[in-house]
Amino acid sequence: MRISEAKTELLKEPEILGGMRPLMEQLYPICRSITGQGVRDTLEVIGSRIGLDMVAVPTGTQAFDWTVPKEWNVKGAYIKGPNGDTVVDFARLNLHLVNYSAPFRGVMSLSDLKPHLHSLPEHPDWVPYRTSYYSESWGFCLSHNQLQSLQDGSYEVVVDTSLGDGVLNYGEFLVRGETEREVLFSCHICHPSLGNDNLSGIAVATTLADMLTRMKTRLSYRFLFIPGTIGSIVWLSRNEEWASRIVHGLVLTCIGDAGGFTYKRSRRGDSLTDRYMEHALRRFGVPSQIQDFSPYGYDERQFCSPGFDLPVGCLMRTPHGCYPEYHTSADNLEFVKQQSLEESLRLCLDFIELAENDAVLVNQNPKCEPQLGRRGLYKAVGGQHRQQDFQMAVLWILNQSDGQHSLLDIAERSGIDFATIRHAAERLQDAELLRPAGRA
């Protein structure tokens, strides 16, 4: 099924749009990190939806300037107060434990315990999300109201975790097209119980991958479900020789909140990926903003490092750190909106349609305009808006199809929607007035 047809037909199937939130609900309770059983559990759930390949890379493996870290797992963690009551418990909310906390057991005073406690005074009912990936320490996160209620006395602290040799896991899924040229979709899977910053990207990417398996595509599509930073570095180190196959790419993150869209350009700034996404956003009907590339953010900064310089941008709604709920317990399933997930999925499909259908064509009758009426390409009745758009698209394509301008170039210069330009180009090819010169 072609992309344009799929946007109409597949999106009518209730399980497509309706399947994203149940996937998030299934993944939400899992304690994920950059390594460990939580990552494997997460990949197994995703793999039940699509045929995911799970890759395991041993602790200590070199990946450019980085080394695969020790594997982290949790059995439990809690703090008991002076009266024996449990005041903080990982079993109630996995955000309570600082992610990657080293094992610890002991009894200590409140003053000695406080340096290991993290809260948000500006949001006293929320629990923050904190990590200690690459420095062995331990800690707990709690609401500021909880912290303020703690009484002086002795506290029993148990952090029943393990840090040892194991593996780093990531998931990979390839939808093969007619060519080996690839479009990359990447999302991080290392955040526990955070709805927008983690699960929204996973839900959209998984659904998109499932949809693409039902379509006939020219390009191939690679989906990565990876731990943040270290995952993309490890993947690139293992696939360095053929990473150049990637002709477009998007990192998907924070795409489930109610804000407008934000697109962060690739390092190149003017790649076709950037142009396709910016064109799609202009036509989408949802408020959006464009950010220039910066070497801070998500895994786009690894894909766009100078040694690779891949055309990979980052698609978000409200950017990370720009909404109060970011990295807190308030980034829960209720914070993620179904309409926002659906819009994000549709926008990705619009992007794919541009990537699939953009082409450079050559006018077979370049000396003056061809006689369109006898080919059924000239309007018989005037005044119809859509017909006028189609007619202008035909004229623009014939004028610009000199082997130098792509369909996207023509759409941008004419101001006509790409879908109309593409349709007119197909009609002109059917009439043997155009021939392909190559793909954009």
Outline the structure in words.
With 440 residues, the protein is an alpha/beta fold. Helices cover 32% and strands 24% of the residues. Strand 14, helix 9 and strand 15 (288-291) form a beta-alpha-beta unit. Helix 12 (385-400) packs across helix 14 (418-430) and helix 13 packs across helix 14 (418-430). The chain starts with a helix and ends with a strand. Residues 380-384 have low confidence and may be disordered.
Concise overview:
The protein is of the alpha/beta class. It has helices spanning 3-9, 14-18, 20-27, 37-47, 110-113, 144-149, 195-212, 230-238, 272-284, 300-303, 338-357, 385-400, 407-414, 418-430; strands spanning 53-58, 62-63, 66-67, 71-80, 86-89, 104-109, 117-118, 140-141, 154-164, 167-175, 182-188, 220-226, 246-252, 261-264, 288-291, 312-316, 359-363, 402-406, 434-439.
List keywords for this structure.
single chain; 440 residues; alpha/beta; 8-stranded mixed beta sheet; 4-stranded antiparallel beta sheet; 14 helices; 32% helix; elongated
Estimated helix fraction: 25-40%
Per the principal axes of the C-alpha atoms, what is the gross shape?
Answer: elongated
Largest sheet composition: 8 strands, mixed
Mean pLDDT: 94
Q: Provide a count of the helices.
A: 14
Biggest sheet, strands in spatial order?
1-10-12-11-13-16-14-15
Beta strand %: 15-25%
Structural class estimated from helices and strands: alpha/beta
Distance between the termini: 22 Å
Model regions low in confidence, pLDDT < 50 over at least 5 residues: 380-384
User: What's the count of strands?
Assistant: 19
Rounded Rg: 26 Å
